[in-house]
Write a structure and sequence with these properties.
This protein has 94 residues and is an all-alpha fold. The protein contains 4 helices and no strands. Helix content is 74%, strand content 0%. One of its GO terms (cellular component) is nucleus.
Length: 94
Amino acid sequence: MSFQTTDSKKEEFRKYLEKSGVIDQLTRVLVGLYEEPEKPSNAIDFVKRYLGSPADIDVETLRSEYEAIKERNAFLEREVAELKEEIEKLRGGD
């Protein structure tokens, strides 16, 4: 059995972040925040906007809308299957 030390896990993770471009993006956003003449009152919103994510999204609302759409889709899929079945029965009766 081989166990990775904490330092080697940290180094592996650091290499992953560097390879995937996360470190560069974080550096850019932090430099952008540092260079802002007037610091924003909400630094997290600044980071989100800088990285291209809208700051005013309500995740819970999106989740509930997604669930409602999923349920509606399942209902419509069942309805389509039932209608196809009915069409097949009608065709078979000719």
